[in-house]
Prior knowledge:
Blueprint: H1 17-22, H2 26-32, H3 43-53, H4 65-72, H5 77-91, H6 95-119, H7 121-128, E1 133-138, E2 141-146, E3 155-159, E4 167-179, H8 181-184, E5 190-191, E6 209-210, E7 215-227, H9 233-243, H10 250-279, H11 284-298, H12 302-320, E8 323-325, H13 330-336, E9 339-342, H14 344-348, E10 354-360, E11 363-367, E12 378-380, H15 388-392, H16 396-407, E13 412-416, E14 419-423, H17 426-437, H18 442-448, E15 451-455, E16 463-470, E17 474-481, H19 483-489, E18 490-494, E19 500-502, H20 505-517, E20 521-530, H21 540-543, E21 547-556, H22 563-572, E22 576-580, H23 585-594, E23 606-608, H24 609-614, H25 620-626, E24 629-631, H26 635-647, E25 652-656, H27 662-667, E26 670-674, H28 680-685, E27 688-690, H29 695-736, H30 744-757, H31 786-812, H32 817-838, H33 846-849, H34 855-873, H35 875-881, H36 888-911
Parallel strand pairs: 9-22, 9-25, 18-21, 22-24, 23-24, 25-26, 26-27
Antiparallel strand pairs: 1-2, 1-3, 3-7, 4-5, 4-6, 4-7, 8-27, 10-11, 10-21, 11-12, 13-14, 15-16, 16-17, 17-20, 18-19, 20-21
Amino acid sequence: xxxxxxxxxxxxxxxxxxxxxxxxxxxxxxxxxxxxxxxxxxxxxxxxxxxxxxxxxxxxxxxxxxxxxxxxxxxxxxxxxxxxxxxxxxxxxxxxxxxxxxxxxxxxxxxxxxxxxxxxxxxxxxxxxxxxxxxxxxxxxxxxxxxxxxxxxxxxxxxxxxxxxxxxxxxxxxxxxxxxxxxxxxxxxxxxxxxxxxxxxxxxxxxxxxxxxxxxxxxxxxxxxxxxxxxxxxxxxxxxxxxxxxxxxxxxxxxxxxxxxxxxxxxxxxxxxxxxxxxxxxxxxxxxxxxxxxxxxxxxxxxxxxxxxxxxxxxxxxxxxxxxxxxxxxxxxxxxxxxxxxxxxxxxxxxxxxxxxxxxxxxxxxxxxxxxxxxxxxxxxxxxxxxxxxxxxxxxxxxxxxxxxxxxxxxxxxxxxxxxxxxxxxxxxxxxxxxxxxxxxxxxxxxxxxxxxxxxxxxxxxxxxxxxxxxxxxxxxxxxxxxxxxxxxxxxxxxxxxxxxxxxxxxxxxxxxxxxxxxxxxxxxxxxxxxxxxxxxxxxxxxxxxxxxxxxxxxxxxxxxxxxxxxxxxxxxxxxxxxxxxxxxxxxxxxxxxxxxxxxxxxxxxxxxxxxxxxxxxxxxxxxxxxxxxxxxxxxxxxxxxxxxxxxxxxxxxxxxxxxxxxxxxxxxxxxxxxxxxxxxxxxxxxxxxxxxxxxxxxxxxxxxxxxxxxxxxxxxxxxxxxxxxxxxxxxxxxxxxxxxxxxxxxxxxxxxxxxxxxxxxxxxxxxxxxxxxxxxxxxxxxxxxxxxxxxxxxxxxxxxxxxxxxxxxxxxxxxxxxxxxxxxxxxxxxxxxxxxxxxxxxxxxxxxxxxxxxxxxxxxxxxxxxxxxxxxxxxxxxxxxxxxxxxxxxxxxxxxxxxxxxxxxxxxxxxxxxx
Length: 916
């Protein structure tokens, strides 16, 4: 269906039709969309456009359905081998073996499925953001409709507290300010202006547009809907999220490679065993059964469960450190992280505007405290905290400056759920708080001098003024706004005694410039007492030249107190930290310097979105590697930055709290969202959510992630010698044509009981000293180093030799085959038990670690010992596992061989202690 040009579409790039909307005068946009600035659309047009463009909702994601999600959980070489082993053992009638194997596969599938279903909820959360009521003008009548019913060309009315329901080209407004921090990263509400802008203006600077999902903090306005549903800026982010593929973590990548190598080796070993047995003239059916036993023995059935449990324990530990993990594998990925890319607003900063400095013609002052809470005081710059009531008597200009900030104000600060929250403009909230710290209560003043008139802030006016009636003083006018505009209204300034003295414009501008250079946003305040009142209504013309400057208030969204220490800790651990924000470059550089990130545009360590666009794909990775701060960055550019870092071989963690962060959170190896201030979209897109919104928690999470990887590696180094030894024992029996020293059922007993009672106890190992002094692991480094591989081969050889020795010795001593096999089974477990204590550290001995530093190990040893006594002496277990009671002498020989193996491993560790 053909329609008017420019209606309802948002092609990407600077040549989009939306770009034409913000680049055209309002009346031309109305003509282009065939609508009216007073009457809006008629009902027939609305119906036709709804049929053409559909509902104003984001399109659902195509997730492939539940069946595809389930099938994806089986896409692992080790799972293929387990399924094949289960099928073969079932055909051979070994139902116990196949049941145990299938149980392992089922657990792994369920865990993976739950993780994927929760992760895909991100797009659903994003779609829910546009479900909000909207006020429109249709057929000249004002009415409220569901936001889903909006169509391109609708005339939409907005006011303070409204969520913008579609992308709007503003046509008229009064003091309209919109909080776009969730979309662009801009920390301050944006004052809107309907004037046309250059076509190439970035989204963050389009002051004549109001975007879907953002929040009106002040004023009123009317705009025509130029894009709805999936064609909005929010829809573009939705598309970006849908196109981003969740990356495999370093752990899953390493385990996949490891599983593939292990699978090939197991199949090759089983094939060799079968071929050798048949070549020796052994019955094919018997040889095949032995080859299957070899494969089952060599498969580390407990590995998938061990990975899941170890990660789950890491999740629990991280939860205690205020980090909630949504996807298990990313616990370990944090330990591999080489760079953290953090949003500024709400991550490095409090996301609460705070007045930091005050200036009056009589002096400079510092303001302590942070955020919207009342804690803090005002003191002379560089001096001790002062009693402000006493200080007011020495600086009347300061009292009037604080009063102007508190009474010429339309915002409030309230206590909600134990936290102070701004209702309205964050800048006004900051001025309310600074007044309270100075002992000035705007409500008391308003009770004595009610407001009788207001000049609302507009982008053209750049200030706000209020007039108050007072019985004993006629009228009082208070004003606050940009320094230059307030100075234009002033003909004098107040001294410390409250007297009017000549205005020192040059001095005031110099002070404002000094404060701005430190990254502070500076506003000026002024007042005038009119004993006879103000003739006529409040207006710019009637105020010009009549006000007296009272002072300057300088504020910022302050850095979090622990951010600098956390950045330093990350640097010590070899993890780079980069700030990526949609805010202005000057603000970003100021905050970066405060938290310990060196940034300068001159040195290339600070870049803007325009700088990024100017770089070729070949130049981008090196530039991103060098820079520490990226400002005025769009969601698409955030994706490019994360991709460039990954191209350089980095494991990238991305932190953020806004809608604009969501695509990059999914693209990153680890997405970290803020739990308190973060949007639901960011939380659902992230892998980890910080419940305290503290950047310092990330450093603790990285430490925990490194410990998880250490413990997983310890488990693998501990379990593989058993599987390899079992396989080699059976291979040797087939090649030699002798009786099997251990049976397949006995192998399953060894594998499953020791994995649970012994191996999983390694998941509780505490962090090793110096964990955060190591550099990050090289992502290309294999799961097992050459030194650890040699240790695995050594222990495997000890197991094979010890098993054959004890098996032959028991037979020679007159024991039955069942008794000899029982001794062999117990030898395997005893060597594993002794070796477990050695695996608690890669370099330190069990004596240095302390035997009781992990009490779970002791519990596991006791449980395993009880199990071995049961399988050896309980008649029911003897019948099920083909075992028989053994003598005390056999136990002494078993323990002796296990102790000897432990001494050999300890000597090897001592020789190679610096090679891990």
